[in-house]
Amino acid sequence: PRDRYDLNLLNGVSILVQNGNTDLGQAVIELATFLGASQVFATASSEHHQFLRELGATPLGDQSFGWELFINEKLGLVFLQEMPSAEDFDSFISIIDESKGNLVFMRKTVESDDD
After folding, report:
1. pLDDT tens series, the chain, 115 aa
2. CA 48, 17, 97, 95 torsion: positive or negative?
3. Sheet containing 77-80: order of strands
4. How many Å separate Cα 111 from the centre of its chain?
5. 80 with 18: CB under 8 angstroms?
6. pLDDT value at position 110?
7. Cα–Cα distance for residue pair 111/24, rounded to 1 Å
8. What gap in Å lies between CA 82 and CA 63, rounded to an integer?
9. Where would I find the H helices in 1-115?
10. What is the DSSP code (8-state) at residue 27?
11. Sign of the CA dihedral 89, 90, 95, 96?
């Protein structure tokens, strides 16, 4: 088994970050790069693409992009911040490496005024 504290944990792994322009998305991109990810793809609207490039990610369209990018090389990690439609969810699942890939879903919680 891999050491979960290994600083090269994502060495050679390609990942996709949904909404890479958010604070959480940016943190995931930077952490994945630090942990040795070979390729980081991130979805965002075109106005954020230059910023994603500066973070070291390959920007993709925010709602639609070519799933065919991942036909030959499946991803080791897909990080979702919003639950996609059932059809899009199936598309996200289809691009994950079946033998060692993971899907992580984490959404931002909304703080109430009562806190």
Report:
1. 567 666 777 888 999 999 999 999 999 999 999 989 999 999 999 999 999 999 999 999 866 667 778 878 899 999 999 888 888 888 888 899 998 898 999 877 766 666 5
2. negative
3. 58-60, 39-43, 14-17, 77-80, 102-105
4. 24
5. yes
6. 65
7. 15
8. 11
9. 23-34, 49-55, 86-94
10. H
11. positive
Give me the residue label for tokens 């942990």: 35
**Cα 39 from Cα 68, distance rounded (Å):** 16
Distance from C-alpha of 82 to C-alpha of 111, rounded to nearest angstrom = 17
Strand intervals (E) in the chain: 14-17, 39-43, 58-60, 77-80, 102-105
